Amino acid sequence: MTAATDFAAPSSAAPGRQRQWLLMVSLGIVFFVLLTLYAAILGVLLPNQIQNMDPAGKTATLGIVYAITSVFSTITTPVSGALSDRTRTRFGRRTPWIVLGGLLGGIATILIPFGGTIVGITALWLVATVTLNSMQPAITTVVADRFGPSERGVVSGVVGASMTAGVSAGTIFGGLMAAHLFVAYAIIGVGIILACLLFVLLNPEPPLAADMTPPEPFRLGAFLRGFWISPREHPDFAWAFFGRFAIYMGYQAILTYLLYILEDHIGLGQVAANAMIARMSSVTFVALVVSGLLAGWLSDRIRRLKPLVFVAGIVMALAVVSPLLWPSVPGMFGYAALIGLGYGAFMSVDLALMTHVLPARAEGADSTGKDLGILTTAINVPQILSPVLAAALLSMTGNNYPLLFCLAAICVVVGAGLVLPIRSVK
User: Fold this and answer.
1) For the domain bounded by 14-206+235-418, which CATH number is listed?
2) Is the dihedral of CA 40, 42, 44, 45 positive or negative?
3) Euclidean distance between the first and final Cα of the chain, in Å?
């Protein structure tokens, strides 16, 4: 296998130093707003809406809503990434996807409180997730398109810290705004629209490289076959995919049901649980920003990614079992601090690792968007499976949250271990 670093030279000329920093900061802002939106909706706003409509069946209903929307968003991510690779416009390849995805996703988000019923809410969230997941691979591919391999540790650290900060900010925002759903959805919907529009205005996409191979005529069969990446031919890509998949299976199982964990496992009321989510996220925010920036800096200093991903996974596993060992408010604060440290470090180096395991392609060819889109399904598929499996487990065991904590921790530890066999990354 050819090391990914051989392939990974940017497809367009690297920007000047000042433009580089502007691009890096702009990427951080878009990912911060995007993750704020996801965390607020998935972790707080939708669970509150569903609980208000269906208190008795809230756990199962939430799992179904997430499963339906995640199936479509999972399919959308690699397909839109592949289509952005083929896109040729006067504005570039990625720009149309960023603008249209952000605009349509933001509008659908603003309309979610007007859904009226579970079906209406699900339909609007489906539109939002599909369009936002059409935008996400295009914005993610900018890291590989416009930065060289030696720069991606810093960029990944900035993006990772922004994403993890967005998760905390979104959870805090959702907890504080849970009683004002219309305003909450409007703020984050407008936020993602502005972030995407400002990104493309401040960072116009450079012209395509002269030696870039034009896309072949579209043939559906060949297009679909292109999504298969052989684990035998590209084992590092497979290890990275399944490691990321397992980590997110464990992480998502707890994050999705955080409100219900505070209510049913810790014993808080709905109002107190929402307030607790905001306080916990303040702790997580500090921990993840510090660990995210530190891990990104450290990865560049030691030129190592795998040990940092592994250690981050172990810290996340300790976070997940904290409520099991200490089922109390202090135990949840322990979870908040540890998950911030572990997830912040993981996110800051995970993106850099992913860009280094992309399969090598023929000179002039580019499938970066598609390949990163496939790797993104390792995040999206757990959003389908984890809530559904967790809901089934809780239903069958009478809300046995300790068992859920144990299984989630096992998933995270296994995921951390799966990055160790990767050979092309140290």
Assistant:
1) 1.20.1250.20
2) positive
3) 15
Neighbours of 20 (CB within 10 A): 16
Q: Are 344 and 161 in contact (CB under 8 A)?
A: yes
Map out the domains of the chain as residue ranges: 14-206+235-418
Burial letters 281-304, b for 16+ CB under 10 A, else e: bbbbbbbbbebbbbbbebbbeeee
State the Rg of the chain over Cα. Answer: 20
Q: How far is CA 405 from CA 261, 345, 402, in A?
A: 10, 21, 5
Phi, psi of 178 (to 5 degrees): -60, -30
Nearest C-alpha neighbor of 293 from the set 148, 156, 147: 156
Q: Name the token pair of 142.
A: 């900018």
Q: Which of 154, 202, 252, 194 is nearest to 30 (CA)?
A: 194
For residue 146, give the nearest of 93, 216, 68, 105 by alpha carbon.
93
* Residues of the chain below pLDDT 70: 1-18, 149-153, 157, 207-231, 300, 351, 355, 358-373, 380, 383-384, 424-426
Output DSSP code: residue 332: H
pLDDT at 281: 80
Three-state SS at 173: helix
Q: What are the distances in angstroms from CA 220 to CA 81, 84, 165, 240? A: 15, 16, 40, 28
Task: Give the list of residues 6+ apart from residue 400 with CB closer than 8 angstroms, or none.
Answer: 393, 394
Q: Is the pTM of this model over 0.70?
A: no
Residue with tokens 């799992």: 63
Q: Are 261 and 390 in contact (CB under 8 A)?
A: no
If one counts every other C-beta atom within 10 angstroms of the C-beta of residue 268, the result is 19
